[in-house]
Amino acid sequence: MQNPEVQSGNSVQDVNPVLLPSFEPFSAEYLNNPYPIFAKAREAAAAFYNAEIDHWIVTRYADIRRILLSPAIFSAANALAPLTEPCPMAKAALKEGGYKPVAVLVNADAPAHTRARRLANVAFTPKRVAAMEPFIREVTKRLCDERLRDGRADLVVDFAWRLPALVHFRILGAPESDVARVKEGNRNRAMVRFGRATEEEQVSAATELAALWRYVTELVEARSHTPADDFISALAQARDGDEEALTREEVAGIVMIMFFTNETTAGLIGNSFLRLLQDRPSWQAICRDPELIPNAIEEVLRIETSVIAWRRITTEAVEIGGVRLPARAKVLLLLGSANRDPSVFPEPDRFDIRRANAREHLSFGCGPHICVGAALAKLEVRVALEEVTRRLPGLQLVPNVQYEYPKNISLHRPISLPVTW
Fold first, then answer.
1. Which CATH number fits domain 1-68+308-360: 2.102.10.10, 3.30.43.20, 3.40.50.300, 1.20.910.10?
2. Does pTM surpass 0.90?
């Protein structure tokens, strides 16, 4: 239900409730296909309040881009905050498990964010990312050999789920044997951060989060004493002039974010295969000409991003599209709506792997908080598409499948993707 009155300082700006869109982010309609809802919302209002999740919803490209470029007014402090206040048992599980949260990169503001980002960039250089391609290709080929060999597979469970995890573990210097443990924990944590978690789910996620924190801090401690050729060691040793080095808790916080990006990269891989296989001419085009793949990835990011919404909180009263938001207002940025704004992308619902401005999407954000792992994610998807199209040009979706999506406000990708060849 939407609030028909929008606060504007001490006054009230009336908004016609008839024009306000129906926005139910946990309805089956929204979870399965939010884009028609986004289109109606974008047309009806630049911003509106939604009482169900207690957030102001922002719908249009120009406004969302301006917000992302204005961190002093729109703080990132709530980016990873639980959508629902954790229950007492979950809070106790975190405390007893030794979890000590630290705001870094994704949910930090300047000056802490500026310093951490600068040092992370020192460790996560374009050269280091480019040097990962041979390993990514090796892992991709191994997964194809092991998982895509019997004429039928689940591209999410058997492939997209595993590739980024194996790659990120190699980057971090963590043992491959721990992949399943970390991946399972990610699913529950996503539900708590972005969904309606039950108390049981909250306690389970809190217990796993505390266990992962202990696991990560042990890795950081070990690399701090005995550096290796990996990202954790590079972060621990990163220096930039007189800039104070990252603390071990900050390094651990960045590593926790890396583990979270396993989910978003897996989502991008799943969405890429789903979109391309649904559009047979596009699939056949990239099979014939792999040079089309990089722009095809940008178009998937535009039209079917794995992160459809992100959050900010206002530091002062501010106007968005003629609507006045109060200070400390929680804001939900509909990235998936911005990416289909017709004022930027002509025929926005048409999938076009040759679209000239596809890379103008906001799927990785923009400004100071733009995703530090964007280049790595696109590299993983490119290699995945190159190897699978080369081996299995006849790959097809299993017909008449009803795809299931995560029950949360931010992450959107098929949980399962059955294919045949």
1. 3.30.43.20
2. yes
Instruction: Please state, in angstroms and as integers, the Cα–Cα distance from residue 226 to each residue in 73, 216, 238, following that order.
Output: 41, 15, 15
Domain ranges in the chain are 1-68+308-360, 82-302+363-420
In this structure, what token pair is assigned to residue 56?
A: 């102001």
Q: What is the token pair recorded at 299? A: 């178009």
The rounded mean pLDDT for the chain is 91
pLDDT given for residue 184 in this prediction: 60
Asked whether the beta carbons of 159 and 384 are under 8 A apart, the reply is yes
pLDDT at 5: 42
Residue 3 has pLDDT above 50, yes or no: no
Please state the CATH superfamily assignment of the domain spanning residues 82-302+363-420 in this structure: Cytochrome P450 (1.10.630.10)
Omega of the bond leading into 418 within 30 degrees of 0 (cis): no
Taking CA atoms, 274 is separated from 118, 226, 265, 278, 398, in Å, by 36, 43, 14, 6, 11
- For 327-353, how does the pLDDT look when each residue is reduced to its tens digit (9 = 90+)? 999 999 999 999 999 999 999 999 999
- The amino acid occupying position 106 is V
The closest alpha carbon to 62, from 359, 343, 327, 323, belongs to 343
